[in-house]
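Notebook entry, cofactor series.
This is the third protein in the set we're modelling with a bound small molecule. For this one the ligand is 1,3-dihydroxyacetonephosphate. I'm keeping the input format identical across the series so the outputs can be compared line by line later. Sequence and SMILES below, as received.
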Amino acid sequence: MEFNKTKAMHFPNDVYIGHNAIDSMRIVAEKNLKSGTILVITGQKTYRIAGEAVVNKLEGLKHYVLFSGNATMDAIKSAREEIADIKVGLVIGVGGGSKIDMGKKIAFDLNVPFISFPTAPSHDGIASPRASIYDGKSFLSIEAAMPTAIVADTEIMAKAPYRFAAAGASDVIANITAVMDWKMANRIKGEIFSTTAAVISEYSSRELIENANMIQPGLEASIWMITKQILASGTAMAIAGSSRPASGSEHLFAHALEILGSGNAMHGEQVAMGSLVSMYLHGGDWKMLYDTYKKIGVSTKAKDYGIPDEIAIKALSIAHRLRPQRYTILGETDLNEEVSRNALKLTGVI
Ligand SMILES: NC(=O)C1=CN([C@@H]2O[C@H](COP(=O)(O)OP(=O)(O)OC[C@H]3O[C@@H](n4cnc5c(N)ncnc54)[C@H](OP(=O)(O)O)[C@@H]3O)[C@@H](O)[C@H]2O)C=CC1
Ligand SMILES: O=C(CO)COP(=O)(O)O
Ligand SMILES: [Zn+2]
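Returned structure with ligand:
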């Protein structure tokens, strides 16, 4: 720990979570808008699911709705061009992880507050100060605005297909291998480590593992439980000032699958598969993780997502290349193909 340096940590001021949390939208927007226009970033589907209702709450306040796709550098560039003549005073991201990442990055660049309004508990970027942005080659974890407020309406989120909730739970459960990687990087590479961030991250994972039986379709209580741990995971990232506590080798595998453009797995599902292999490579209890994913109904079989075995093997072999500066159990050179195949076979991913 360096005591002669200032470290900045940013946390949300207001968190509204629960049934009808959307009713707090107006008051939160008014509190955070000092001047200018409210920029609402949403997607075509998520506008219908919640964006329109959020906009209705802003009646009388100047606002502009921007429709966006995946979170990429190109999408950020065109969004900035679209809003070039608008004096934005507040950004609200309404949607899944991609819309929230777009919103928090644009708010950061414009130096205005950001409100996170998730339509599903499908990822733990809901409350984090980092954005995962694709730059045409890789997925960068870049600095972004920590949401100044989070409005998580569990009634709206509970209407998302159950798959979204199971994926979000998996994204948090996988923190367990991310922390194992971080501890290893601290031991081997001397990487800066925060015990507080690691403990919170592990806690959020353990809570969901221990209560996996209660994560079921059709239960708003499950959405509550997952969202609470998503908030905890975001807090760990805020303390660390990076996604390190929640993104290790399991995420590198997920990002490699994205790069190879294979299959239809959601982010959290890709991460679940990755965490089994990471846990196996660490010599940990991967069977416990396997049973947990089974309980919550997440398949960890690549074939179920249309991912061919050979692509999964390649993804694992090259995953370390995605973030060379982030040392993990995958090491610094391509994983031998046979090692990759065995690890994926043994854990049932292929
Ligand atoms: N910054 C961080 O710390 C983190 C960032 N992420 C990022 O988040 C993204 C993954 O997020 P994820 O939410 O899985 O995927 P997306 O945001 O890509 O959304 C996937 C699809 O689901 C739709 N959708 C969203 N909500 C609902 C709903 N309630 N009902 C039906 N459909 C819905 C979206 O609609 P529409 O077309 O309207 O958007 C979109 O078509 C990745 O880009 C990942 O990198 C993940 C974890 C952490
Ligand atoms: O997905 C994340 C945490 O769940 C963070 O993503 P990165 O791997 O892009 O940092
Ligand atoms: Zn993730």
